[in-house]
Amino acid sequence: MKTIKIKAPATVANLVCGFDVLGMALEHPQDEMELTLLNKPQLIIQHKDKYGLPTTAEKNVAGVALLALMKAYEKPIGFKVVINKIIKPGSGLGSSAASAAGAVVAANKLLKNYFTKNELVQFAMFGEELASGSKHADNIAPCIYGGVCLIRSNHPLDIIPLKTPKLFVTVVHPQIEIKTSEARAILPKEISLKNAVKHWGNVAALVAGISQNNPEIIANSLRDDIIEPVRKKLIPGFDRVKKRSLTVGALGGGISGSGPSIFMFSTTKKIAEKVEKEMIEIYREFNIEAKTYVSKISKQGVSEV
Amino acid sequence: MKTIKIKAPATVANLVCGFDVLGMALEHPQDEMELTLLNKPQLIIQHKDKYGLPTTAEKNVAGVALLALMKAYEKPIGFKVVINKIIKPGSGLGSSAASAAGAVVAANKLLKNYFTKNELVQFAMFGEELASGSKHADNIAPCIYGGVCLIRSNHPLDIIPLKTPKLFVTVVHPQIEIKTSEARAILPKEISLKNAVKHWGNVAALVAGISQNNPEIIANSLRDDIIEPVRKKLIPGFDRVKKRSLTVGALGGGISGSGPSIFMFSTTKKIAEKVEKEMIEIYREFNIEAKTYVSKISKQGVSEV
Q1: From CA B219, how far away is CA B222, in angstroms rounded?
Q2: Do B212 and A211 count as a contact with CB atoms less than 8 A apart?
Q3: B92, B13: one domain
């Protein structure tokens, strides 16, 4: 019986102006997962964490991703999966993506890389569909490819890995609940062409800044007048976090995925830690429990441990 | 009396999915211009071409650009300007931008580079305002910087020069008239968020493709479901040009600026010439006179000759 242990990184989707098309992997937090290859078509899921997630394959994000992979494999196989979830569900840090991506990458390693990365992303997207109702790849792709990924299109799937800028990321996760479905429901259906042009100027500049590893261009492009003004209302303290992060030297940042987590880019670890200190203080002021992380962008996606 | 001769390149704005934010310089056609520095605040404009453009400074695009530059200079100066326009006005190939940019770059060379490139773009934008009613930089910036430029924002002006992909450009200019004002009036005021996301995925991918000099990414990203469907109706033969260009191997392309010119990218000169042949044939079928160009992307903007 072959067994493998992997770690699956948290991911930040959207990156402010890259709504629905950009995502990046973090060095931590990372989920831990252990997969064992079985010779019969069976899926056993166990959790070592306290989150009480479903263990029925069809109701578990790692489960549905693995079912899709098993269906595409040449002969009947199964897996025993033991998940130790470190990335809190509902944090906006790609918790469901880490489960789904971690499971299929681990399975593929047990199958001697039978599937391509692109196929793995497609299997894992079934997990996102289960978790949020839509098959999006902006967390899955960076979780599997690592670094910063551009998802030009979900259907057909077109993933463009970008360079990994040498930046530090500070994340704060205020412990409040935002439903992805709610965060999506409040978005405008229509936007002005003028605002759209401004927005695609920024996302184009962000990709240029990342490609040129140019912090100034990155800082100037981290703007969003379309999604952020609507969604930030769901996150107490958002404006204060942004303002004070910029004051202590952050390049910029915004909502991670659909929130409630907020991320900020900095050029040095020292600045990133100052940002963290501000974040902790702000949520103490708000009397909201908050967890923070300081991390580099992870060049690697799901990795064997 | 100091005199200088320069050439100012034609430019292609928008680049399909980069509406209002991307532009590139071509190796030809290029305007020719001769400037002489005068010691008094006087502006003499002469034309060596047949287009009958105004020679009053305030009504001439090179004139208003130079007036802005003269106003910003430390002491009273003037210029004599002789323009030989090669880029036909109203072609959609940045004819007015070439006049305005050519004039201010030449003037700045006579003034021993007193002004920065960014300042020159701002002076030249007065020419665009005169020509089209709006101060945009998507032709001016590449005309001055060369290569492919991203204009993240017009106000404040933020120009990001990108890498110059090793591609050939075929341009056809069907000799019909499209007013920039008309081409702008037919644009939608509002677009769906869904279409906008698709669009910024493409423009982000185009910048990634250019940065990585990757023809496949460039080809996949040259899509536009917002502007092109509306504007192409003003250009007879547009769909046929696009279809047959792709058939003979072009990567893709679309309307140059607000038209009527159409441009296509190819990876080799041979393919670019096949595309040219198709374009010529199509407008012969339509019985519309057409001028074609095969060119590389020019790394250089306005240059001394």
Answers
A1: 6
A2: yes
A3: yes
Please check whether residues A244 and A125 belong to one and the same domain: no
Q: Does residue A180 have an active-site annotation?
A: yes
If we measure between CA atoms, which residue out of A139, A137, A33 comes closest to residue A85? A33
pLDDT digits (tens, 9 = 90+) for B42-93: 999 999 999 999 999 999 999 999 999 999 999 999 999 999 999 999 999 9
Whether the predicted model's global pTM rises above the 0.80 cut: yes
Window B:179-208, CB contacts with A under 8 Å? 187-193, 196-208
In the block, residue with structure tokens 């096949």: B274
- Closest listed residue to residue B179, CA positions, set B51, B98, B90: B90
Query: pLDDT tens digit string along A40-89?
Result: 999 999 999 999 999 999 999 999 999 999 999 999 999 999 999 999 99
| CATH at A176 | 3.30.70.890
Domain of residue B68 covers 3-162
Average pLDDT score over residue span A84-109 = 97
Task: Note whether residue B302 is domain-resident.
Answer: no
Among the listed residues A32, A128, A228, A276, the single catalytic one is A128
- Residue of B152, B153, B194 to mutate, interface with A, max A Cβ within 10 Å: B152
Edge-to-edge strand list for the sheet holding A168-174: A252-255, A262-266, A168-174, A290-296
Q: Which residues of B are catalytic?
A: 128, 180
Residue A113 structure tokens: 């890389």
Q: Which of B149, B169, B147 is nearest to B160 (CA)?
A: B149
Kindly indicate whether the ipTM for this predicted assembly is greater than 0.85, answering yes or no: yes
- A207 contacts A161 by C-beta, under 8 angstroms: no
The 3-state DSSP class for residue B35 equals strand
Q: Which two tokens stand for residue A262?
A: 């907020």
- From the number of C-beta atoms within 10 Å of its C-beta (0-12, 13-18, 19+), residue A44 rates as middle
Nearest alpha-carbon partner for A135 in A125, A149, A120, A121: A125
Tell me the residue type at B24.
M
A201 and A270 inside one domain: yes
Look up the CATH number of the domain holding residue B116: 3.30.230.10
Q: For chain B, what is the domain count?
A: 2
Interface mutation vs chain A, best among B134, B138, B160, most A CBs within 10 Å? B160
Q: Are residues A16 and A110 in the same domain?
A: yes
